[in-house]
Amino acid sequence: MTLIHVPRPPKNAYDPDRPVTSLLNSQVAHLRKAESELPLRYRSEIYIHAIKTEGEAARYIHEVTEAIHAAHEDAARARRAPKRRRSLEIAAAADERAERQRTRKASQRSTAKKAKSGPGRQNKS
Amino acid sequence: MPPGLDNLKHIVVLMMENRSFDHMLGSLKAVDSRIDGIDVQNPFQNPDTNSNGVTAQALAEFQAQLQPDPDHHFPAVDLQIFGGDTSATRQPNMQGFVRSYFHQQGDVGHSQKIMYYFKQSDLPVLTTLALQFAVFNRWFASIPGPTICNRAFAHYGTSFGKVDLNPIYLNEPFKSIYTRLIAATPKHTAKVYYYDTTSSTMEVANLLQNQPELFGTYSQFLDDCKKGDLPDYSFIEPNYSDHETDSGEEVANDQHPDHNVQAGELFIATVYQAIKDNPDLWESTALLITYDEHGGIFDHVPPPACTPDQFTADGNATGTGVPFKFDRLGVRVPSVLVSPWIPPNTVVDRVFDHASIPATITKFFLGDYSPRSPRETSADVFIEPKGGAVDPQRNLLSLDTMRNDCPNFDA
Q1: What is the number of domains present in chain A?
Q2: Is residue B54 in a domain?
Q3: Which domain holds residue A24?
Q4: In this structure, which of A46, A87, B4, B210 has its CB flanked by the most CB atoms within 10 Å?
Q5: Residue A93: inside a domain, yes or no?
């Protein structure tokens, strides 16, 4: 099998200060639109109209991409969490219902006792 | 069933940026006359603004030559393809590249650089893969326009009527190829691997916003290759920007002018080598390397007419004053299909465009599927579907035994 040498780019190939291209500008615009639909706490503080270089565009793209992932992960966690809360609520509601039933039964017993003795007393009085 | 197709479990697509066929692979005609590149005996010419013929020359440089970025928005590409003819009966003649580039700087000498192409030795990775596997003579961009709308064809089989870089709004019922696969029964797997979160994706308005779980990074791709965990379908995006990360400086490797072309060569080699270094994966994977569009750089093959899409871009959207019915392909781009089941020196003359990507993936993994856009439905497939009779004339993974002579790169 032939091994083919792949030349590496020279060090000066790297230039984050290169003026931003229309493609990166459009990527920024797409991400700005996606960002605008995120809750406020996930939004970047970078003013996109001040982006002039590739490095600046990259920083914004990074922040928003991370924020989109974070927002979705948090939302997924939140979707899972209410289930647990709901089961607690159900358990709590069950406890409340049991408590209410106990109170009602106690109240019914007390009413029954009163009903047994009360009218007599009333009659007596 | 031919063993190459029988073994095929993974399809990987790597889409680079903004280089034409002749610019990258035109030199290969001198090596193999079946490859429709530059005829050095009778080289392709374009007139400059002084009406002098400018000949295609092997003088392309890796960087700092195509500044400013050659215009490749719809009106500019219209000029490049039709040479400025706006009549109703016009035919594509590929005579407007130099004039189009002249408009950006008003410098006749500089405008001639749009006709430069790379020598074979400049691009050891792409040219080796083109000669060692299957090279497509007629793979065109989907639209005579810029990146985002062309990439949309690779994901959705349509750009939903867009010919520009503005955000694309999905228009039901056409679902992305990823959504189709993961929603199928039995379920398939699919992933878009962008380079890193700082480069991110060019498919931002829709997929990343709504289905971020479909995305991974390039380092995850490398891990998935090592572990043999590659999804059924993977789409790889290169690094679109020079940027810093915790591990140091990352040089853009998308080959978009004025990014360094050698960095892209290295990237293509790492993708190829990641698959090849896992023997199980190598045996069961096909890798398509293609470019989203030509980036305003010359090519000599007129793009053909095609089945219109169901959308129309109006005259304001096209910027030419004339509506576009998506009934003509964009300029030709380099495309190479890699698999150890493909005979060396395979040259494919059938017509493809990026709608062929979802068309192929859908037919291969899902079979019949609808709805799909008119453009995707009419697009040819580059891998024959499993099941049923396979036409040996169309099957590119045609070898009875797997090759063991495929090249390695020191990537």
Answers
A1: 1
A2: no
A3: 15-109
A4: B4
A5: yes
* Of B167, B240, B251, Cβ closest to residue A9: B251
Per residue in A42-79, pLDDT (tens digit) is 999 999 999 999 999 999 999 999 999 999 999 999 98
CA-to-CA dists, residue B359 to B45, B356, B377, angstroms: 35, 5, 7
pLDDT tens for each residue of B198-235: 999 998 777 888 888 899 999 999 999 999 999 999 99
Residue B192 CA from chain centroid, whole number = 15
Task: Give which of B17, B73, B198, B277 to mutate to test A binding, by max A Cβ within 10 Å.
Answer: B198
Closest residue to A3, CB basis, from B165, B256, B408: B408
Chain A residue nearest residue B125, CA to CA: A6
CA distance linking residue B71 with residue B282, whole number of Å: 38
CB–CB contact B241 A66 (8 Å): no
pTM of the full predicted structure?
Answer: 0.91
Give a yes or no: residue B327 inside a domain. Answer: yes
Three-state DSSP state, A125:
coil
Question: How many domains would you assign to chain B?
Answer: 1
pLDDT in tens, A88-104: 555 555 666 666 666 66
- Per-residue H/E/C for A61-103: HHHHHHHHHHHHHHHHHHHHHHHHHHHHHHHHHHHHHHHHHHH
B100 falls within a domain: no
- Residue A124 is assigned to a structural domain of this protein: no
